[in-house]
Amino acid sequence: MRVNDETESAVAQRLDQGILHGLLGRQLRVTYLAVFRTIEEQLTGLGITPQQFGLLVIVDRNPGARQTLIAKARGLDKSTLVPMIDRLERDNLLERRPLATDRRIRAIWITERGREVLRKAVPIVQKGDDLLRAHLSEGELAELIRLMEKVREGLGVTD
Amino acid sequence: MRVNDETESAVAQRLDQGILHGLLGRQLRVTYLAVFRTIEEQLTGLGITPQQFGLLVIVDRNPGARQTLIAKARGLDKSTLVPMIDRLERDNLLERRPLATDRRIRAIWITERGREVLRKAVPIVQKGDDLLRAHLSEGELAELIRLMEKVREGLGVTD
DNA sequence: TATTGTTATACTCTATAACTATA
DNA sequence: TATAGTTATAGAGTATAACAATA
């Protein structure tokens, strides 16, 4: 993918992309990545990654949820979540708390510091996402969202 | 992300996704990933990954291109390409050929076997991508593509 | 000096399988 | 037996920095 990089590699960009060019999935990916990387860069200043941001949001909105549930909500294996939470706990953004009623469970809570970081991160992410909408009219935006929803429904994507 | 999985984790899906839910970038990602993973699974049967597929397409369409150029076309660092080509060369799908005119360059060519694999892979990828379009009318599809292009233009994404 | 490709290294993201402690 | 979380391990994908050969 190339972003604002006409400068140096004019030749390289002209390599024939064959079938790749026409794939709708690829257009979605390229568009998404362009914004994702901007956001990623800016979140680095807060010391978190986009993945960690997503996790913080979920935990913030679902206080005390257990790991398995969070993993499912994020579409991840439970084992994948362990090191993610480890790091956020080490950085004091999240904490694990044992549950008296079921001692297998370790409920996840956001910390005061986590809330602070989140408060700063949300506008960064929102502003990044707004870039996607910036060049569309009100009507076009609504139509794009409608069509995207229709595509996802057709795929059976619940998310 | 959840795909066709209402069965088991109804509760998990209902976790509050907060700001995440409304992000257009996230909708792009989720939609793209749903199709990507289907394609990925099917390509596994041919012994290649989606990334390798992309590389094969580029090499097939640009015979004898040198690595640096291909790396740029794929948006990758040149060092990233080395192990990718290593593997495809080991599997006899690509080959490096020295260039008489500039002995620093190793031009990349697709092999007969690579062409064969590609011939089988293209319909898999195309069929996967068609899923995205399946539930849109002719007019809706055109409009979606137009709007996506507009979004990308607004971002300065050349690709 | 600059470029091509390589190596060494490291980090993220992700999964599977086997384990433990509890239920 | 089944579930929650953990560990051990592995593999893709990616990058940066330093390097040798060549231009």
TrEMBL record, chains A, B:
GO terms classed as biological process: response to stress
Span of domain HTH marR-type: 21-153
Domain of life of the native organism: Bacteria
Single GO MF descriptor: DNA-binding transcription factor activity
Gene3D superfamilies hit by this protein: Winged helix-like DNA-binding domain superfamily/Winged helix DNA-binding domain
SMART domains named among the record's database cross-references: HTH_MARR
Protein name: MarR family transcriptional regulator
Organism, scientific name: Aquibium carbonis
